Amino acid sequence: MTTPTAYGARMSLAEILDEIPKLSVADRQDLVRRAIAVDDADLTPEENAVLDARIEDFHRDPDAGTPLDQLKERVQERLSRR
To answer: Within the chain, what is the greatest distance between any pair of CA atoms?
Structure first.
């Protein structure tokens, strides 16, 4: 799959993904916000129930989750193996 750019050239999905690490943190956050907005469909009642249950679990035991630093490290390790 290729995507047109402002100059008419096309980038493959792989090329786009290769460029993401070069973006600033603010630009990556903007990218995530825009990606979420594209698929901002309403949740089904079942999806809402799952989220409500997970929020309840978190409030009962906030230390049960994975700290953000550890999560980032795991994701970066998985991505570097590709």
So the answer is: 53
**Owning domain of residue 6:** 1-40
- Same domain, residue pair 56 and 35: no
Is the same domain home to 36 and 51?
no
Q: Kindly state whether residues 48 and 82 are assigned to the same domain.
A: yes
Q: How far apart are CA 13 and CA 26, in angstroms?
A: 21
What lies within 8 Å, CB to CB, of 1 at 6+ separation is: 12, 13
Query: Tell me, what amino acid is at 46?
Result: E
Query: Are residue 28 and residue 51 in the same domain, yes or no?
Result: no
pLDDT (tens digit per residue) in 42-82: 888 999 899 999 999 989 998 888 888 999 999 999 999 87
* Token representation of residue 82: 């590709």
Q: Whole-model pTM?
A: 0.38
